[in-house]
Inverse folding.
């Protein structure tokens, strides 16, 4: 119960930080010609991709999925940008 109360008290700061990170990520993609929606949607895509990588999917698997929405170069760019921003432990330079 105490943990839930603390989480509620800390949530606004975490949300603001996530919002800033999502906006930066979305703007970075947009400046490179990739437009996927608003910051919340784009950030969710990046975080979901990181969850997939943690579950055992490869970056190539993610590129293949993203190619349904963009070309291969954009998909590779998205994967590199998302891993750098949201899961640097999965980032390959």
């Amino acid at each position: 119960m105490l943990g839930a109360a603390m989480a509620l008290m800390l949530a606004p700061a975490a949300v603001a930080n996530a919002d800033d990170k999502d906006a930066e990520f979305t703007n970075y993609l947009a400046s490179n010609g990739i437009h996927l929606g608003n910051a919340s949607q784009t950030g969710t895509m990046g975080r979901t991709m990181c969850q997939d990588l943690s579950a055992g999917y490869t970056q190539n698997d993610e590129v293949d999925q993203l190619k349904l929405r963009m070309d291969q170069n954009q998909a590779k760019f998205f994967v590199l940008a998302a891993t750098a921003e949201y899961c640097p432990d999965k980032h390959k330079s």
In short: Confidence is low (pLDDT under 50) at residues 1-11. The CA atoms of residues 49 and 62 lie 7 Å apart.
